[in-house]
Amino acid sequence: MNFSAISSEDKQAALSELRSITADFAARGWFPGTSGNLSLRVGGFSPDRFHFAIAASGKDRSIGNHEDFLFVDTNGEPCETTNLKPSPETMIHAKIYRVTGCGAIFHVHTVYNTMLSEYYGDQGAVPAKGIELIKDLGIWEDDDSIQIPVLPNYRDISKIAKLISGSLKPEVPGILLRNHGIYAWGKNALEAKRHLESFEFIFEVLYRSLLLPPGPAKKG
Ligand SMILES: CSC[C@@H](O)[C@@H](O)C(=O)COP(=O)(O)O
Ligand SMILES: [Zn+2]
Fold it and tell me: Which domains does the chain have, with CATH numbers?
């Protein structure tokens, strides 16, 4: 589908959904400084042709303004005339859309995701097991254990983008960049938001568990 064939109602609906979720995440402190970027796919999808709205680069996400999102194509190139600059990380979003076919991708930096990505960085994944919110990632096994991939945080974003297809775990809707933050996705904005909230809860539990001494049953 051509970008011009996507209705202006659909484009406006995407912007309004992104603005509302941006305000929600900003209120939680999930966009420190000018970090983070959210994106939402619009129109139809084929791995070689799709469009998405993405946050403009270098903006304070906690200040609502209308110079905040632009529409880009499969290659991360703007589809309309604009003064706004897409983030260099648009390449990561484009690659995740291409590989997963998802509908929304949310990237945030938090203390918990940053610390755990560094703590488990050498082993390439953050392990999580038996935490109820793993189910909210769509994983309902009895032995609900997952490995959340950690990729190196190269300055050259194209090097990160190249690693994505080989690192994603189909059942885990997220990846961490080491000492940087998380990308979480879903079939639409609501599912991506739910997944991101679940990941952040899991990271906080894991981090706090590392600080606790062994419980009574484990002392022997
Ligand atoms: C300025 S700190 C964060 C950036 O380096 C980047 O990782 C980020 O999340 C936001 O980049 P941006 O280009 O503004 O979308
Ligand atoms: Zn970032």
Answer: 3-212 (3.40.225.10)
